[in-house]
Amino acid sequence: MFSRSLAFTLLSLLSFFFPFVASGPAWTSDPFIPPAIPLAVRSPYLSAWLPQGQGTALNAGWATFWTGMIQGWAGYIKVDGKAYAFMGSAGGVTSEKAVQKSFQFTSTQSTFVLTAGPVDLTVTFLSPVEPDDLVKQSFPFSYMSMTVASNDGASHFAKVYTDISAEWITGNVSSLATWKATTDSNVVTHQIQLSTQVPYTEDHDKIQNGAAYFSATQTSGLTYQIGQDVLLRNQFTANGTLLNTQDTNFRAVQDEWPVFAFAWNLGKFSSTSATVVCSLGHVRDPAVQYIKADGSKQDRSLYFWSKYSTVAAAIADFLQDYTNALSRAKALDATISTDAKKVSQDYAELTALSLRQAFGASEITVSKNADGSFNTSDVLIFTKETSSSASVNTVDAIYSMWPLYLYMNATMGKYALLPGLEYSASGLYKQQFAVHDLGSHYPQATGLANGGLTMPIEETGNMLIMVLSYIQRTGDTSLATQYHSLLDQWAQYLQSNALNPTSQMSSDAFAGALDKQTNLAIKGAIGIAAMSEIANLTGDATKAAQYASTAVSFASKIVSSGTSTDGQHLTLSVSFDRLVAARHRKLMSLIFLHWGLAYNLYADQLLGTNLFPDTVYNMQTSWYGNKLANTQYGLPLDTRHTYSLTHWEIWAAAIAGSSTVRDSFIGGVLKLATNGKSNKPFGDWYDTVAGTENSFTARPVVGGHFALLALQGAPLNTTGIVAPTSTQITLTQPTATPGAGGGGAPPSPQAAASDASRASVLHSFGLGVVFILSLSLLP
Ligand SMILES: *[C@@H]1O[C@H](CO)[C@@H](O)[C@H](O)[C@H]1NC(C)=O
Ligand SMILES: *[C@@H]1O[C@H](CO)[C@@H](O)[C@H](O)[C@H]1NC(C)=O
Ligand SMILES: *[C@@H]1O[C@H](CO)[C@@H](O)[C@H](O)[C@H]1NC(C)=O
Ligand SMILES: *[C@@H]1O[C@H](CO)[C@@H](O)[C@H](O)[C@H]1NC(C)=O
Ligand SMILES: *[C@@H]1O[C@H](CO)[C@@H](O)[C@H](O)[C@H]1NC(C)=O
Ligand SMILES: *[C@@H]1O[C@H](CO)[C@@H](O)[C@H](O)[C@H]1NC(C)=O
């Protein structure tokens, strides 16, 4: 009694002084409430989320597509004859609301527990991630499972129900749908499709061909029905069973809302009921249209078709595999959590939120041979650049999520690189630099020739860096051999253009074009270094040495010219016209004061190229540390705006030489994920002052949050850059005055082998230096 009234007093006081304390949800969350909870997230067209904001219970809102469009998904439970709603927020149904008790998520699962009178219902949404199995990873299906447990020690009777609407198949609810329910001895499936099928064409980001499949394993307690939403839901809440009938009055999605339902009789149980499972997916065939070297367009299928001849057979295996799939998912969750906790608890939480979203915009495809059989040697992964455009295989989007591929399975990364390599090598794309994307409308990977957006240094550097890191992780040099002349062409492009970049866009296209971006020049130098290593691996000693020499020379020039005059930080723009600047100091100070996140240095660590000296990392760490001390949400991308991208914050964290700085970056991104200001699938583009997300949502680039895991224990068998002898920089003696703040310990997660060349060039470079660049280095 005493403790209760004391608690009450404390609560009253708390809510008096902090009224917001009472506004959070009554349920618990572990580890936190994300902007939107992944429910079924496996492909660009199987992407269902529960919007959260400050916290929305499973039965207080509707599941939505990543665009925000509702995808009806309802759930009811009857306990000892009394009906409760546990999912969705439909009107007109005779029931009470179950009370959500808790929510928990892991990398692959979202789990809700709701109290319905004397029982607790556990609903788990599992979207598997199967990095080592192309068939399983290409399944566009997700699981929902339900288990009921007595919460009062007594035995109870329970029945559960769930339905989906036809909103799952279209972006326009006026569209006409057709459907059927199919039963066999193993599985009951509802199949729903548009009456007019249009391959390769989206409507409000939904694909216009294929069908949604809602399926359950056949059991004695299972019933199903197709019919109007309120009729079926009331049928269940009144009678507890469905009629195994189908409404065949095909109509528009919103016309007396047809729904597709299952009900299970769980019978009587004293502690815990059996678990019932259903699967939900969206399948189409063909899936992706792809331009071949001869200009013809190829129809490609999701990879699982190479093993199954019908969707029904694939679904039967998927459902039957549930127990094993759950074990694999738990093992994967545990591995990621253990690895990420080596960094921090915050980092483990951030990676757990990112996994399903990162893989949820990609599809693994296979082509057919002339005889109609599948060519399983021809595997290509296609990724949709969700929300920021609808482009196919945007190179910098793949690059952003690249750490995830390296961490999970680098071979999958190769399948994501191949379309860009094949298209570029075909000659259909005429530019010397790498292509930005393969088509502006997913799933049409039909090429751009010379049109479309260009990010010359960005994408060219990205491709070289990704190819080398793939080789380093797998030992497979086939890409280096097969695409040698293309890679060499790209390296030559960088050699001619990367040191002093012309005005162009980087990955951060929304910031517009900018002249002489230091961060781009850094990427260019690392790209050239990557080509040196690739040449080394393919036995071309001459090229290896020549590119190494260029890369080292570029790096030293970039450091000299791209460092602020006070030696405190890298600048936003390299100032090769420094001598001119000296005479126009007032004007040029505008440039010198600008700085940005030099996230492209990450690749230098990832590849072990070690082009840039520890002094640069230490300088940046100190600079970031000072700036981070005054922020809650990390640092802006650069001084032009207050916005940033979450994955670049994490890349900067990954190479920070201080755990304080690293943790501040991670903490800033996690704060964005947890602050309750968004209700869309996590958006990577955000305002670092307000802690609000900009327009991007559900982008695969959150795979970049795995940047620290890609560095952890990376089996980097790099050969190292061959030391050049010709290039030397003369520096005045540094008056090392390290900045305050987080700096300190050397970075190098790889603690790379000592690199005489770089040391000889730059070891004397220090903080707080004003130095003179020898004139011979000016272009
Ligand atoms: C990576 O995935 C491929 C399939 O693409 C698989 O053959 C391979 O075994 C996987 N690698 C590892 C280390 O599991
Ligand atoms: C939705 O579909 C209907 C029927 O086909 C059509 O008349 C209408 O223009 C569409 N609306 C939008 C916004 O595309
Ligand atoms: C429930 O079943 C009874 C017969 O068992 C029937 O009379 C009644 O109409 C049913 N109610 C609903 C809502 O289907
Ligand atoms: C299968 O695909 C591989 C890789 O694209 C290709 O080299 C091979 O020629 C293809 N096989 C046939 C029979 O077309
Ligand atoms: C890199 O190391 C791995 C593991 O030690 C090995 O399997 C692979 O062949 C090596 N790759 C190269 C390019 O030497
Ligand atoms: C590759 O690099 C290693 C280490 O620097 C060197 O010993 C070897 O000669 C190089 N091979 C070629 C072909 O450049």
Automatic annotation (TrEMBL):
DUF4964 domain residues: 35-89
InterPro entries (UniProt xref): DUF4964 (IPR032515), Glutaminase_GtaA (IPR052743), GtaA_central (IPR032514), GtaA_N (IPR033433)
Domain Glutaminase A N-terminal: from-to ranges: 108-339
Keyword set includes Glycoprotein: no
Signal peptide: 1-23
UniProt KW keywords: Signal
Region ranges (Disordered): 731-752
The keyword Endoplasmic reticulum is assigned to this record: no
Ranges of residues in domain Glutaminase A central: 344-709
Top-level taxon: Eukaryota
Protein name: Glutaminase A
Taxonomic lineage from the root: Eukaryota, Fungi, Dikarya, Basidiomycota, Agaricomycotina
